[in-house]
TrEMBL record:
It holds the Pfam family PaaA_PaaC. This is 1,2-phenylacetyl-CoA epoxidase subunit PaaA. The gene is paaA. It comes from Hydrogenophaga luteola.
Length: 311
């Protein structure tokens, strides 16, 4: 029977069909999806922190309103993604426990500090830009709930990207000091954003299987290249210099060549030793502990409702 189920699953994958929660799926496929979707959810939730840091210091009412909305959207994406992961048989408690004990990963990019207001613009432009580049192909991922979640998430990320770029355009028309802040933020974030796409294809243990299963549609290196090619002209319009002396159009390849990424620094950060890892996790754990009374109250309310219905 198992062979028949496997054959049916393979046929669905080969035909570029969708796998749904009640369908039979290989355990390894389920496990990979739980890993990726939960880590994606954690990234959205931890990703609220670097920008949330600036809500109280936004330079105008308009910027503050936009930033609150954006950070709130990221929270929504996280909850949406936790729900998608729950359809695979894991629980929110299990996922949060993995995050809070440091077992689960989340995107490396959120382990760097936000030092000036331009960082908020640069996160919108580059971090959300990289996130969209990675998430558009996930809209075609073989697991239905994840693919559908990505469609809505991408629409919101696209607004996030534009608000960031627009904030930077305004700063670049300002004083020399403001322009310097934008350049400084770009200098600090550029290389970290390139690393968001994950290790080079040759060092990416999950890629081959992820591609076979139709979870990954475009490889880490190909997405990174697409992101660079799309971003260079945007940097020119903005008037900033991307901090890579090797960045150069390659006529033959039809792509930009670029310099070497510091993968040692990337792995140190992924493995918990980036500049902000400890602080980010501590903030999440504290928020979870301080929210215990809300969860208890919600459970008590649900129990009461149920009792009333049974009477
Ligand atoms: N950071 O074999 P691969 C956002 C890990 S966007 C940390 O290539 P895979 C929006 C990887 O998990 C950011 N870890 O793995 C936002 C694996 O370890 P594992 C979130 C990384 O899965 C914007 C190991 O390295 N987006 O939050 C990273 O095939 C602004 C080997 O790597 C997503 O999560 C990294 N950068 O490919 C929010 C998208 N890269 O799990 C707020 C969904 C790799 O075996 C503000 N995820 N690792 O222990 C994916 O597309 C994939 O999981 C990749 C990695 C492409 C990230």
């Amino acid at each position: 029977e198992d062979a028949a189920l496997q054959a049916h699953f393979d046929a669905v994958i080969d035909a570029d069909g969708k796998v749904e929660p009640r369908d039979w799926m290989p355990e390894a496929y389920r496990k990979t999806l739980v890993r990726q979707i939960s880590q994606h959810a954690h990234s959205e939730i931890v990703g609220m922190l670097p920008e949330g840091n600036w809500i109280s210091r936004a330079p105008s009412l308009k910027r503050k309103a936009i930033l609150i909305a954006k950070v709130q959207d990221e929270g929504g994406h996280g909850l949406y993604l936790y729900s998608a992961a729950e359809t695979l048989g894991t629980s929110r408690d299990q996922m949060l426990d993995a995050l809070h004990t440091g077992k689960a990963k989340y995107s490396s990019i959120f382990n760097y500090p936000t030092l000036n207001w331009a960082d908020v613009g640069v996160i919108g432009w580059l971090v959300d830009g990289a996130a969209i580049m990675n998430q558009i192909p996930l809209c075609r991922c073989s697991y239905g709930p994840y693919a559908r979640a990505m469609i809505r998430v991408c629409k919101e990320e696209s607004f996030h990207q534009r608000q960031g770029y627009e904030a930077l355009l305004v700063m670049m028309q300002g004083t020399a000091e403001q322009k310097a802040m934008v350049q400084d933020a770009v200098n600090r974030y550029w290389w970290k954003c390139l690393a968001m796409f994950g290790p080079p294809d040759a060092d990416s243990p999950n890629s081959v299987q992820g591609m076979r299963w139709g979870i990954k549609r475009i490889s880490n290196d190909d997405l990174r290249q697409k992101f660079i090619d799309a971003t260079v002209p945007q940097a020119e319009v903005l008037g900033v210099t991307l901090p890579d002396p090797d960045l150069k159009w390659n006529e033959e390849r039809g792509h930009y060549d670029y310099g070497a990424i510091d993968w040692d620094e990337f792995w140190a950060t992924v493995n918990g030793n980036g500049p902000m890892n400890k602080e980010r996790l501590a903030t999440r754990v504290k928020a979870h502990e301080q929210g215990a009374w809300v969860r208890e109250a919600a459970l008590a309310h649900a129990a009461k409702q149920q009792q009333r219905q049974q009477k």
